[in-house]
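A student in our group prepared the protein record below, which I am reviewing. Here is the record exactly as it was handed to me.
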Amino acid sequence: MAKPKYDSIFHVLSAQIESGQYRFQQRLPSENTLAEEFGCTRNTVRKALALLAARGYIQTMQGRGVQVIYRRRRTSTFLFGTIESLREAAARNGLSARTRLLSLEQGTVDDELAEASGLEAGAAITMVHRLRLLDDVPLIVDTSCFLTSVVPDLTAEIVESSIYLHLEEDLGVGVASATRSITVERANEEDRSLLHLEGMDCVVVVRSSTFDSAGSIFEFTCSRHSPVGFEFQATAQRLRPRR
């Protein structure tokens, strides 16, 4: 399925920003200039700019243009406000990513999981337990529950390659949004045996419920991150106080 034009423009501009072609606090060209450069309408450019703003690359200033607010981080950065696979996050940070499958099982959503995830109790799920390595350092262990009706026939090959790539390109599932929580918790026995903790006895736990383009939850993941080199980045906007 061909990607929309604005998505291609987003990738070009984000790469230019990341490479320093457009520097921190520098203004981007006008919408008219960008539309001419990419051979598209101003509305298409606006969609690309909105995506850049949502990803924390730029800030639109009313009547004064668009300013770059992105700065490259030295640590491995995970984006809190967007959904990306580990491979995508690693590529963005110039790291190698590898997944080792620990277990792949079939099950059903019990009441405790239903309460935590929003998945319907009794639904059939495929449970994926993985160890994630960045530059061959084991930094994340996660457990994902996928609705079997949405993601059937998962294999070790798919899991160790990219489940999201399989979802979007093979199954045609539109990954749309996610709700997340982040806590810091004491490391458990598995964390200590699998993760590179550098003597720290805690992990950063990220729990995510992911929705498809129809608004249905199809995945719940609990990721336990080593605090070594951990940084979770988001772009925040001021909420106007209620009067």
